[in-house]
Amino acid sequence: MSIILHEVLGDNRGQLVAIEESVNVPFDIKRVFYIYGTQKKVSRGDHSHYNTKQYLIAVNGSCKITLDNGKTKQTFDLDEPNKGLFQDALIWGSMHDFSDDCVLLILANEYYDESDYIRDYQEFLDVIH
Ligand code: T46
Fold first, then answer.
1. Ligand 1 pocket test, candidate residues 49, 95, 102, 110, most atoms within 8 A of CB
2. 1 band by pLDDT with thresholds 50, 70 and 90
3. Integer Cα distance of 42 and 31 in angstroms
4. What is the pTM of this model?
Protein backbone atom coordinates (compact mmCIF):
# COMPACT_ATOMS: atom_id res chain seq x y z
CA MET A 1 0.00 0.00 0.00
CA SER A 2 1.77 3.11 -1.20
CA ILE A 3 1.21 6.27 -3.18
CA ILE A 4 1.98 5.98 -6.90
CA LEU A 5 3.34 9.11 -8.58
CA HIS A 6 2.27 9.42 -12.19
CA GLU A 7 4.35 11.22 -14.76
CA VAL A 8 3.08 14.74 -15.38
CA LEU A 9 2.98 15.40 -19.11
CA GLY A 10 1.95 18.56 -20.88
CA ASP A 11 3.83 21.69 -21.76
CA ASN A 12 3.68 25.44 -21.25
CA ARG A 13 -0.10 25.34 -21.90
CA GLY A 14 -0.74 23.18 -18.83
CA GLN A 15 -0.41 19.70 -17.37
CA LEU A 16 -1.75 16.28 -18.28
CA VAL A 17 -1.72 12.91 -16.52
CA ALA A 18 -2.58 9.76 -18.48
CA ILE A 19 -3.86 6.58 -16.81
CA GLU A 20 -4.01 3.42 -18.89
CA GLU A 21 -5.75 0.18 -18.01
CA SER A 22 -3.38 -2.51 -16.75
CA VAL A 23 -0.43 -0.16 -17.38
CA ASN A 24 -0.74 2.48 -14.65
CA VAL A 25 -3.49 0.72 -12.70
CA PRO A 26 -3.19 -2.97 -11.84
CA PHE A 27 -6.58 -4.06 -13.23
CA ASP A 28 -9.02 -3.71 -16.12
CA ILE A 29 -11.23 -0.66 -15.59
CA LYS A 30 -14.98 -1.35 -15.66
CA ARG A 31 -16.27 1.67 -13.75
CA VAL A 32 -15.32 5.27 -13.09
CA PHE A 33 -17.02 7.42 -10.47
CA TYR A 34 -16.14 10.52 -8.53
CA ILE A 35 -17.21 12.08 -5.27
CA TYR A 36 -17.21 15.78 -4.49
CA GLY A 37 -18.99 18.36 -2.34
CA THR A 38 -18.15 16.34 0.77
CA GLN A 39 -19.22 18.12 3.95
CA LYS A 40 -16.61 19.20 6.49
CA LYS A 41 -15.51 16.53 9.00
CA VAL A 42 -17.40 13.84 7.13
CA SER A 43 -15.88 10.43 6.47
CA ARG A 44 -16.84 8.50 3.33
CA GLY A 45 -16.27 4.94 2.26
CA ASP A 46 -15.90 3.13 5.59
CA HIS A 47 -16.33 -0.25 3.98
CA SER A 48 -14.53 -3.00 2.15
CA HIS A 49 -15.34 -5.07 -0.94
CA TYR A 50 -15.18 -8.78 -1.62
CA ASN A 51 -13.95 -8.37 -5.20
CA THR A 52 -13.80 -4.71 -6.14
CA LYS A 53 -10.37 -3.13 -6.47
CA GLN A 54 -10.16 0.64 -6.59
CA TYR A 55 -7.66 3.25 -7.69
CA LEU A 56 -8.11 6.69 -6.17
CA ILE A 57 -6.89 10.08 -7.39
CA ALA A 58 -7.80 13.50 -5.97
CA VAL A 59 -7.99 15.27 -9.32
CA ASN A 60 -8.80 18.52 -7.50
CA GLY A 61 -8.23 19.55 -3.90
CA SER A 62 -7.08 17.03 -1.30
CA CYS A 63 -8.19 14.33 1.10
CA LYS A 64 -6.73 11.57 3.22
CA ILE A 65 -7.31 7.86 2.73
CA THR A 66 -6.91 5.34 5.53
CA LEU A 67 -6.46 1.74 4.37
CA ASP A 68 -6.81 -1.08 6.87
CA ASN A 69 -5.93 -4.73 6.17
CA GLY A 70 -7.35 -5.89 9.50
CA LYS A 71 -3.93 -5.81 11.14
CA THR A 72 -2.45 -2.41 10.30
CA LYS A 73 -3.85 0.93 9.21
CA GLN A 74 -2.01 3.39 7.01
CA THR A 75 -3.12 6.91 6.14
CA PHE A 76 -2.17 8.50 2.83
CA ASP A 77 -2.40 12.10 1.63
CA LEU A 78 -3.90 12.55 -1.80
CA ASP A 79 -3.02 16.18 -2.43
CA GLU A 80 -1.74 16.33 -6.00
CA PRO A 81 -3.56 15.28 -9.19
CA ASN A 82 -0.69 13.01 -10.20
CA LYS A 83 -0.84 10.94 -6.99
CA GLY A 84 -2.74 7.65 -7.08
CA LEU A 85 -3.52 5.06 -4.44
CA PHE A 86 -4.47 1.42 -5.04
CA GLN A 87 -7.04 -0.13 -2.71
CA ASP A 88 -7.17 -3.87 -3.14
CA ALA A 89 -10.22 -6.04 -2.49
CA LEU A 90 -10.69 -6.99 1.17
CA ILE A 91 -9.07 -3.79 2.37
CA TRP A 92 -11.15 -1.50 4.57
CA GLY A 93 -11.03 2.06 3.19
CA SER A 94 -12.01 5.37 4.77
CA MET A 95 -11.81 8.73 3.00
CA HIS A 96 -11.63 11.80 5.24
CA ASP A 97 -10.27 15.33 5.71
CA PHE A 98 -11.66 16.47 2.38
CA SER A 99 -10.87 19.99 1.23
CA ASP A 100 -13.94 21.95 0.11
CA ASP A 101 -12.85 21.67 -3.50
CA CYS A 102 -11.89 17.99 -3.43
CA VAL A 103 -12.96 15.87 -6.39
CA LEU A 104 -11.94 12.29 -5.72
CA LEU A 105 -11.88 10.13 -8.84
CA ILE A 106 -12.14 6.37 -8.43
CA LEU A 107 -11.41 3.72 -11.04
CA ALA A 108 -12.77 0.25 -10.28
CA ASN A 109 -12.41 -3.22 -11.77
CA GLU A 110 -16.08 -4.17 -11.19
CA TYR A 111 -19.49 -2.71 -11.98
CA TYR A 112 -21.45 -1.36 -9.01
CA ASP A 113 -22.94 -4.18 -6.97
CA GLU A 114 -24.13 -3.53 -3.44
CA SER A 115 -23.71 -7.23 -2.58
CA ASP A 116 -19.96 -6.81 -3.09
CA TYR A 117 -19.82 -4.34 -0.17
CA ILE A 118 -18.85 -5.25 3.40
CA ARG A 119 -20.17 -2.33 5.41
CA ASP A 120 -19.83 -3.84 8.89
CA TYR A 121 -16.31 -3.76 10.35
CA GLN A 122 -16.73 -6.92 12.45
CA GLU A 123 -17.99 -8.79 9.40
CA PHE A 124 -14.89 -7.55 7.51
CA LEU A 125 -12.63 -8.95 10.25
CA ASP A 126 -14.52 -12.25 10.19
CA VAL A 127 -14.15 -12.52 6.40
CA ILE A 128 -10.40 -11.86 6.30
CA HIS A 129 -9.47 -14.07 9.27
C1 T46 B 1 -15.53 4.48 -2.10
C2 T46 B 1 -15.80 5.91 -1.90
C3 T46 B 1 -14.65 6.80 -2.24
C4 T46 B 1 -24.04 3.71 -7.19
O5 T46 B 1 -25.22 3.65 -7.57
N6 T46 B 1 -23.03 3.40 -8.05
C7 T46 B 1 -21.73 3.45 -7.69
O8 T46 B 1 -20.84 3.15 -8.53
C9 T46 B 1 -21.40 3.87 -6.35
C10 T46 B 1 -19.95 3.94 -5.91
C11 T46 B 1 -22.41 4.18 -5.50
N12 T46 B 1 -23.72 4.12 -5.92
C13 T46 B 1 -24.79 4.53 -4.99
C14 T46 B 1 -24.92 3.70 -3.73
C15 T46 B 1 -25.46 4.68 -2.72
O16 T46 B 1 -26.87 4.76 -2.85
O17 T46 B 1 -24.47 5.86 -4.53
C18 T46 B 1 -24.86 6.03 -3.18
C19 T46 B 1 -23.70 6.46 -2.30
O20 T46 B 1 -22.75 5.38 -2.22
P21 T46 B 1 -21.85 5.15 -0.92
O22 T46 B 1 -22.67 5.35 0.28
O23 T46 B 1 -21.16 3.84 -1.08
O24 T46 B 1 -20.83 6.39 -1.07
P25 T46 B 1 -19.44 6.68 -0.35
O26 T46 B 1 -19.04 8.04 -0.77
O27 T46 B 1 -19.48 6.38 1.10
O28 T46 B 1 -18.42 5.58 -0.98
C29 T46 B 1 -18.13 5.60 -2.36
C30 T46 B 1 -17.90 4.18 -2.86
O31 T46 B 1 -19.02 3.36 -2.56
C32 T46 B 1 -16.69 3.57 -2.19
O33 T46 B 1 -16.37 2.32 -2.79
O34 T46 B 1 -14.40 4.03 -2.00
O35 T46 B 1 -16.96 6.37 -2.61
1. 95
2. confident
3. 24
4. 0.97
